[in-house]
Backbone:
């Protein structure tokens, strides 16, 4: 089969190679991958790839070999999955606890855009607690997580302000339920009960937007600029602010992912969640797409197809 592997060249980060089909563990199903979606964090790993790195965590396709232990979907079932690695290939072995079945109404392209960004959005909102009637600020809202968080939080009754530098993205995020859109964190009119911070360098400014007793959840550093906090600035900031570090697969989270995937699929099927796919292309265009994703030329998600997407 064909598989994409790292090259170590930032200008062309992956290339095709021939590889044997993966041999599933007893609790894994073998999936014929129809579509996959790279994530911006994966582009950073490709700059200095570890030996043996097999990228790919968001896939959708068809079960061609059911798990030997009897768990999970049967052969012929359309699924979305979140394997730990190896999804940028014609076939991928995926733990059955990280799979969800797809209805006929959901294409492989739409489904592939769900896993990492969607699971992150769900778990961020669980970490934030009840958001009904609360004011929320979402930085870096132009990405996949930002779109999902905005729509889910607004639907739950939050008053959401998003930060995006692109007017077209601001318009789209308002359509998804954002109450306000600003071009920079400093422009946001707080105070906010919850801040979801994903850029890194803007963390001190985002923190200053919190209400007394508010919570900032730090879940990314997309700017790749470390944050610097000054103790004395905090003394003049919100009283009793809480900063929480978050990772969707952290020690109190992680797999299984199947339940969250099934929730995301149901929300899309019911018309309550709308994957924001900025680019769809054949996987021959993966290298170029990864560069554009890393350089922030793609808003929302990019999905690559292997030629058999439904």
Residues:
């Amino acid at each position: 089969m064909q598989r994409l592997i790292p090259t170590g060249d930032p200008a062309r980060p992956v290339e095709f190679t021939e590889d044997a089909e993966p041999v599933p563990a007893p609790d894994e199903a073998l999936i014929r991958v129809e579509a996959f979606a790279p994530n911006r964090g994966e582009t950073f790993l490709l700059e200095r790839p570890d030996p043996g790195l097999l990228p790919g965590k968001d896939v959708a396709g068809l079960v061609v070999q059911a798990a030997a232990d009897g768990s999970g979907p049967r052969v012929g079932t359309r699924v979305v999955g979140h394997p730990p690695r190896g999804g940028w290939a014609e076939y991928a072995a995926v733990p059955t606890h990280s799979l969800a079945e797809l209805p006929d109404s959901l294409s492989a392209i739409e489904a592939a855009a769900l896993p990492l960004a969607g699971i992150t959005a769900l778990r961020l909102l669980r970490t934030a607690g009840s958001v009904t009637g609360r004011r929320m600020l979402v930085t870096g809202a132009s990405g996949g997580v930002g779109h999902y968080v905005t729509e889910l939080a607004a639907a739950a009754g939050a008053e959401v302000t998003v930060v995006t530098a692109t007017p077209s993205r601001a318009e789209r995020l308002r359509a998804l339920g954002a109450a306000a859109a600003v071009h920079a964190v400093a422009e946001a009119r707080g105070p906010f009960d919850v801040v979801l911070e994903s850029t890194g360098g803007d963390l001190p400014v985002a923190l200053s937007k919190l209400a007394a007793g508010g919570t900032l959840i730090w879940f990314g550093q997309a700017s790749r600029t470390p944050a610097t906090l000054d103790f004395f600035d905090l003394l003049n900031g919100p009283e009793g602010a809480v900063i929480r570090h978050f990772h969707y697969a952290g020690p109190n989270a992680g797999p299984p992912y199947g339940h969250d995937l099934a929730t995301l699929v149901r929300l899309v099927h019911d018309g309550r969640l709308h994957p924001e796919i900025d680019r769809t292309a054949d996987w021959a265009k993966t290298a170029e797409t990864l560069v554009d994703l890393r350089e922030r030329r793609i808003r929302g998600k990019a999905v690559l197809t292997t030629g058999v997407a439904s």
Q: What stands out?
A: The mean pLDDT is 93. The longest strand covers residues 28-36. Residues 12 and 287 are 5 Å apart (CA to CA).
